[in-house]
UniProtKB/TrEMBL annotation, chains A, B:
UniProt-listed Enzyme Commission number(s): 2.1.1.319
Gene Ontology BP annotations: methylation
Name of encoding gene: ga18192
Domain Methyltransferase: 68-164
Keywords carried by this UniProt record: Methyltransferase, S-adenosyl-L-methionine, Transferase
Role noted for this protein: Methylates (mono and asymmetric dimethylation) the guanidino nitrogens of arginyl residues in some proteins.
Catalyzed reactions per annotation: L-arginyl-[protein] + 2 S-adenosyl-L-methionine = N(omega),N(omega)-dimethyl-L-arginyl-[protein] + 2 S-adenosyl-L-homocysteine + 2 H(+)
Domain of life from the UniProt record: Eukaryota
GO annotations of cellular component type: nucleus
PROSITE patterns the record matches: SAM_MT_PRMT
The protein's name: Protein arginine N-methyltransferase PRMT10
Amino acid sequence: MASLPNGAAAAGGPSGAPVVDKEVDFANYFCTYAYLYHQKEMLCDRVRMDAYHSAVFRNAHHFRDKVVLDVGTGSGILAIWSAQAGARKVYAVEATNMAEHARELARANGVTDIVEVIQGTVEDIELPEKVDVIISEWMGYFLLRESMFDSVICARDRWLKPDGVMYPSHARMWLAPIRTGLGDKKMEDLDVAMDDWGQFVEETQVYYGVNMNVLSKAYRAEHEKFYLKSSIWNNLHPNQVIGQAAVIKEMDCLTATVDEIREIRAQVMLPISLDGARLAALAGWFDVHFRGSKQNPANEEVFLLTPSLKVSKGDSVNVSFSMVRSKENHRLMDMEFTYELHEFSGKQHPAITTKMYLE
Amino acid sequence: MASLPNGAAAAGGPSGAPVVDKEVDFANYFCTYAYLYHQKEMLCDRVRMDAYHSAVFRNAHHFRDKVVLDVGTGSGILAIWSAQAGARKVYAVEATNMAEHARELARANGVTDIVEVIQGTVEDIELPEKVDVIISEWMGYFLLRESMFDSVICARDRWLKPDGVMYPSHARMWLAPIRTGLGDKKMEDLDVAMDDWGQFVEETQVYYGVNMNVLSKAYRAEHEKFYLKSSIWNNLHPNQVIGQAAVIKEMDCLTATVDEIREIRAQVMLPISLDGARLAALAGWFDVHFRGSKQNPANEEVFLLTPSLKVSKGDSVNVSFSMVRSKENHRLMDMEFTYELHEFSGKQHPAITTKMYLE
């Protein structure tokens, strides 16, 4: 869909960044957040909820008598916690109509004199004062999908006092070598899809006199992207990890810039710690910190490596990684992994490059 | 999401019609058609394929040595058939990048000298000549969902010769009273969803100190819309129909206007032909004609009636129907059914009105 005129594509902005059509962005992105169903899904994520809950209440001194800005408040839970932790004033900004529900919720929880819900985007709204704390649950798959941190940066640059604090304060992205049967499963799915296509081509020729075979290659490419080149959200078992994990990106939320996250490039060496394993994928995840207290509110993304590699203890995998915003939709990410096996014996295998999509 | 600034909402155009933001429309609507997977799904619909195939080849005299315009050609199948049926020239218009595949397909099927694929919307493109035939597979759920017929009308008014023909030429929308267990099933699903919500509210209070109960009513409304007020695509068994079907809209594709389909209102009396049945839903479907040869390339939509009504042979149901384009997205439809049971005995029950969404 590279040339689909969907607004986010084609034209470049002053800094070479794609121009974002706000209306398209609303249609594509914000609208899901207007459903209570979706809000509930997020609120049922215990790991995430617990991380924020203890961050707020264990650091209540950061909130007591302070002014707080909650970026993308959704149903308003972080804003209410901030008020409960003693904030003098909480500005809770929400772009969708969920703002109305956040207002009701603040009322029902007796914090209506503290929590002020403002419907709008943080890029557009005005506040009557600077804030001491910015809190936000902005993390998408593999941290940066959704590109919502851009809005947090904007909020910080516009409204955070010089000595203000960010919740979360730091974030890291990780990669680790793993073994998994997922690749075989997906390959089987792809085979089934292609068998089905083959039958369709045959039938279309026989019944309708049109030869569709010329599209087989494109059909396969479309399905390879879907089955093999799209990251898979997954809960990993610790013993799937067959070597050392590495940080590919560290970020201080107080100083990070949009330029810094628009394109991420890293090269890491991942030592293998298990004998005779098959390196079938890389796992990616993130963790965030709240001023010292480490939290990991995220699940793993699996990036399949096809072909997989047979590896042994003592080998290392050299991984070059890049993640760039998709040209068609700035909230999605195009990734590229180059992986290269260095055997313990000194033998070095040729590098393999694979694209991967976080959609 | 009534006030979401998603482009299609709010502002009115010169005729009072909502202004369509083309970029948003592309993001929301056209992009699915850019996938071969989706094209294949449509091409695997035998009823639809057979209807068009026989329409073209049984009426080959309409195509022989004629100029044809295919509106929204997709993979190009109708354009190729038109060429195979003897057309002198076929302009195949496609907005998405599927146009490239249509070109390949035309080449592979040896009709590249006849089929000219033009990438663009039929509202924007220019043709070098007027056409004798417009062919298009524009029908959405319950005929009008997707509002693609607007584009066919535009194509007709811009490019069809005064004595040109339309494929299909006529379309009708039908309603019939049916019995079904779907409503009970959906009601159970709703109960499960609400039980789950109840537990969530309790846990959020206990674990996180926030009372979410104030949102229960809104959560129920959101889910009622999803489970009970959204039409359900379904294959009906003939003996589910418990009374007479009625045409609620007839349309001549040669003369129909956008104004005529923007809002549809009808009132029909549906006599019941089965004793002791429960009127649990209305079924809606459409059929289209190709210059005399009747075809029914569509499946049924089920519109649940909650509450359902106990009915008997000889009773009649008076149904008032309206279908208006959704303010938020002109391709979706908001419907309202008012149903009123007239017993054979003369007893008349109070009218019940229910909204229904075709999304």
